[in-house]
Write a structure and sequence with these properties.
Order of helices and strands: EEEEEEEEEEEEHEEHHEHHEHEHEHHEHE
Strand order of the largest sheet: 13-14-15-16-17-18-19-20
Shape: globular
Oligomer: single chain
Number of helices: 10
Largest sheet: 8 strands, mixed, barrel
Radius of gyration: 23 Å
Mean pLDDT: 89
Number of strands: 20
Low-confidence stretches: 1-5, 111-117
């Protein structure tokens, strides 16, 4: 399944007599106004201290006026509610006009670009961390955490996502950084397998034999034969639990191969979930070719969804219904407040997950009476 990389969006000044410039919309939210704490600080008395903000939902961005005195105009129309933004849209406030763009022009940027951590460029770090990672794999000293997945209709806990955690002062505490390190030294599959197998071994003791959602790395998806054998061993650890394997949407490049992979999982009584899923017509057409059992909508789509434009709500609702028509259960991931929960329920999601219910916890710290 072909997917588009997350776009980098820019505000490009098209009506500033002093100079030409542009700024990357890198934070969420990205606020514009006269206040110094705004991500884009502008000096114009007609601009409010906090005038408007831009937010991201998956690959989409949208604008919300912050009850400014003189209003925010999108394509010469004063906005009254949240509106989706598209390439080429013009935002006007005070003396300023900005063009929305996801293609960087020759205009000088007002800020430096963020450079992500890259272990592969620091050979000394790799040389010192590789033995420690190997020792971790040999000892199996990881602590699985469990985050509940609830059914919207009755708020019952139906399953848990297993998330691997490591508490080693010599290794990265962030799971993404740890997996990146493991990938650089050739141990990503081994670490991912350890997280799954130990998580399922402990998770089978959760009350009621809940569904256990386990994760994979993109590198494992490139070797599906090896992954299937690993999952076969994982399933044997907890034969009374339903296992669901999560595949990141961006790791799916061949729908025919993914369809064959799903058929092999069915023979093992293992389900399939597509994780971090976005919204788009192309995805919907390709989804029909290799439908998973679960579709986990990206948390960036769910964040502040109650404030998002109605057009985005309509898109998500249409997509949720289409997934259900294909026999796919939908899950809203990353719910953090009651407003997000209420909106997701109204949009038709069947299942929910997020900090609003519980953060990921070791099995010894889960309060089962709170659900």
């Amino acid at each position: 399944m072909n997917t588009e990389e997350n776009k980098q969006w820019y505000l490009e000044a098209v009506a500033d007599a002093n100079r030409e410039w542009m700024v990357a919309v890198e934070t969420d939210p990205f606020r514009v106004g006269r206040d110094e704490d705004c991500e884009l600080n502008l000096t114009d008395k007609r601009i409010s201290r906090r005038h408007f903000e831009i937010r991201r939902s998956g690959e989409h961005i949208w604008i919300l006026d912050l009850e400014s005195t003189n209003g925010t105009y999108l394509n010469q129309k004063k906005i009254k509610q949240a509106e989706l933004l598209e390439q080429g849209d013009i935002i006007s406030i005070g003396k300023y006009k900005f063009r929305i763009s996801h293609v960087k022009s020759d205009s000088k940027s007002m800020g430096d670009e963020t450079i992500p951590i890259d272990f592969s460029k620091n050979l000394e770090d790799l040389a010192s961390l590789e033995p420690k990672l190997r020792a971790l794999l040999n000892s199996g000293n990881v602590i699985p955490h469990f985050q509940p997945i609830l059914r919207f209709s009755d708020k019952a806990v139906v399953g848990y996502e297993i998330l691997g955690r490591v508490f080693d002062k010599f290794l990265p505490s962030n799971p993404s950084d740890l997996l990146e390190l493991a990938q650089c030294v050739g141990y990503a599959a081994e670490l991912s397998t350890l997280f799954r197998e130990k998580g399922v071994h402990i998770g089978k003791n959760l009350p009621g034999f809940p569904i256990l959602f386990v994760n994979t790395t993109p590198q494992e998806v490139c070797q599906l034969d090896v992954l299937v054998e690993s999952l076969r061993m994982t399933q044997k650890i907890a034969p009374s639990n339903r296992i669901i394997v999560e595949i990141n949407e961006k790791a799916i490049t061949d729908t025919n191969e993914m369809s064959r992979f799903r058929n092999r999982l069915e023979k093992l009584n293992i389900g399939l979930a597509f994780d971090d899923f976005g919204v788009g017509q192309t995805r919907l057409l390709e989804l029909a070719k290799a439908p998973p059992d679960y579709l986990k909508f990206d948390a960036s789509l769910i964040h502040q969804i109650h404030l998002a434009p109605k057009r985005l709500h309509q898109m998500i609702s249409t997509f949720v219904k289409a997934a259900h028509d294909l026999g796919i259960d939908t899950l809203a991931e990353g719910i953090e407040c009651s407003n997000e929960e209420e909106t997701c329920h109204r949009l038709g999601f069947k299942f929910a997950q997020g900090f609003f219910y519980s953060k990921p916890l070791p099995i010894t710290e889960i309060n089962f009476t709170s659900f």
